Amino acid sequence: MALTAGVVAVQGDVSEHADALRRAGAAHGREVAVEAIRTAGVVPDCDLLALPGGESTAISRLLGDEGIAPEIVAHVEAGKPVLATCAGLIVASTDAGDDRVDELGLVDATVERNAFGRQADSFEAPLDVAGLDDPFPAVFIRAPVVAAVGDDVDVLARWDGRPVAIRDGPVVATSFHPELTDDDRLHSLAFFEGPDHSTD
């Protein structure tokens, strides 16, 4: 039976996440049907959910305006997995450090926006990630950083001593863009190799 994966499509790398979801599913013997989410009513039918990057203030506003935000919260409360990347991490946090962002509170974390600089300061780095045997080629673009986490949050990876990948229950959130590589191991980790919420 195919899994339904939703990619929040108000901004960000929608097709790249969709491709990575399909590859990760295939690697685990699961067919994944991907739905682009632009309006309310789609999230409740999804088994998996990706919250891509983009501009965090715009994403949070659009999620609220379209009525998608409470559906994402309900998805997590039901124990279903989410992967939130870059601006998705900011929106998913409990404290984005910006009054213009209406946080979803999915991960108990305080985030600093653009902590690694502007677009011109983008870089790629081999990242040691808990649960992965080999370094992950992490792409940082105007990346946020996790300034603090709650007691129940697992730090999966650090760069320059600062957390850049975390897990809080069924939610994995990264400062970087795993979808911009051909490496689908982060999507596998989030959706198929996690703790008891795994869809495998």
Q: How would you describe the overall organization of this protein?
A:
This protein is α/β, with parallel strands linked by helices and 200 residues long. It has a single domain, classed as Rossmann fold (3-Layer(aba) Sandwich), CATH 3.40.50.880. The chain is built from five helices and twelve strands. It has helices at residues 14-27, 56-65, 69-77, 87-92, 185-191, and strands at 3-8, 32-37, 48-51, 82-85, 93-95, 107-112, 123-127, 136-140, 145-149, 154-159, 162-168, 171-174. The strands form three sheets. It has a seven-stranded mixed β-sheet with strand order 2-1-3-4-12-11-10, sandwiched between helices. A three-stranded mixed β-sheet has the order 5-6-9. A hairpin with a 2-residue loop joins β10 (154-159) and β11. Residues 196-200 have low confidence and may be disordered.
